[in-house]
């Protein structure tokens, strides 16, 4: 069981320092949003710098923690450029980079609906699947090609290979129990679960157990597989924090992500980081 911290913004000045503090406080990972321009209520206002540049600064300032976006909306990125950026982060971090991916908050992020990006869920899913296929080939350092509906890549090779083998771990948002979404998850290295319907039908530890059983029964790869869940725990009450996490750990999650999406105070975020992860009972 590992503990990550999701920073609520990508401030170029504070994110690297917060990553250093998180490493010192015993967190196992630090993650930042991948948004172009958030345009909705409920999210902290403030500067948003480029995700990949900020992650590079975080990689250079830390030695142990896992780093990544939470999560990357890769349907709006050129796969061959993204391959180069992620490979570089893998090298800068000496193999500590992971790539969580999803369709993106298209209706909330002006980097979708104000600039003419694909808005339909089906279209974004197709772009994401083809992008992942290209990334997998590009990271290998071997010749690869791709001929899809959205992207066409002639036989080419990108060097160097990623440090992590067989590839940079990819965590995919999976809508449980939607078959098509879960089939996609089985091809990669982790799931960020969402429950179909959401709202009045939230995810429960029993759902996590069902997901874990489904993956164990159907996944063909022998590489490690992570189940990621996020929440907010009180840093000033370790016993209560541990009790909140325990049911999810018992159900089978491998990462607890401490999230502070609605906090607009860097001081509050830093204070929670310094209090350390909610170690399970």
UniProtKB/TrEMBL annotation:
<dbReference type="InterPro" id="IPR011251">
    <property type="entry name" value="Luciferase-like_dom"/>
</dbReference>
<dbReference type="GO" id="GO:0046306">
    <property type="term" value="P:alkanesulfonate catabolic process"/>
</dbReference>
<dbReference type="GO" id="GO:0008726">
    <property type="term" value="F:alkanesulfonate monooxygenase activity"/>
</dbReference>
<protein>
    <submittedName>
        <fullName>Luciferase-like protein</fullName>
    </submittedName>
</protein>
<keyword id="KW-0503">Monooxygenase</keyword>
<keyword id="KW-0288">FMN</keyword>
<dbReference type="InterPro" id="IPR050172">
    <property type="entry name" value="SsuD_RutA_monooxygenase"/>
</dbReference>
<feature type="domain" description="Luciferase-like">
    <location>
        <begin position="14"/>
        <end position="179"/>
    </location>
</feature>
<dbReference type="InterPro" id="IPR036661">
    <property type="entry name" value="Luciferase-like_sf"/>
</dbReference>
<dbReference type="Pfam" id="PF00296">
    <property type="entry name" value="Bac_luciferase"/>
</dbReference>
<keyword id="KW-0560">Oxidoreductase</keyword>
<keyword id="KW-0285">Flavoprotein</keyword>
């Amino acid at each position: 069981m590992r503990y990550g911290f999701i920073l609520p913004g990508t401030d170029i000045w504070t994110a690297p320092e917060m990553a250093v503090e998180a490493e010192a406080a015993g967190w196992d990972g630090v993650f930042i949003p991948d948004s172009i321009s958030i345009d909705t209520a409920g999210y902290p206002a403030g500067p948003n710098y480029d995700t990949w540049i900020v992650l590079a600064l975080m990689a250079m300032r830390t030695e142990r923690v896992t780093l990544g976006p939470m999560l990357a909306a890769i349907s709006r990125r050129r796969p061959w450029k993204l391959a180069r950026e992620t490979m570089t982060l893998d090298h800068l971090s000496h193999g500590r980079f992971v790539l969580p991916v999803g369709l993106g908050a298209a209706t909330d992020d002006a980097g979708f609906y104000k600039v003419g990006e694909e808005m339909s869920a089906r279209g974004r899913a197709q772009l994401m699947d083809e992008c992942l296929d290209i990334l997998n080939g590009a990271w290998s350092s071997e010749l690869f090609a791709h001929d899809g509906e959205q992207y066409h890549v002639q036989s080419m090779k990108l060097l160097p290979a990623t440090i992590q083998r067989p590839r940079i771990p990819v965590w995919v948002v999976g809508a449980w129990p939607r078959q098509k979404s879960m089939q996609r998850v089985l091809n990669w290295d982790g799931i960020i679960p969402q429950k179909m319907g959401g709202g009045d039908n939230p995810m429960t530890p029993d759902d996590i157990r069902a997901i874990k059983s489904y993956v164990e029964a159907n996944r063909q790869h022998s590489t490690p597989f992570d189940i990621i869940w996020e929440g907010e725990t009180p840093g000033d009450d370790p016993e209560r924090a541990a009790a909140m996490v325990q049911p999810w750990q018992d159900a089978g999650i491998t990462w607890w992500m401490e999230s502070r999406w609605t906090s607009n105070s860097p001081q509050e975020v830093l204070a929670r980081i310094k209090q350390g992860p909610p170690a399970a009972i």
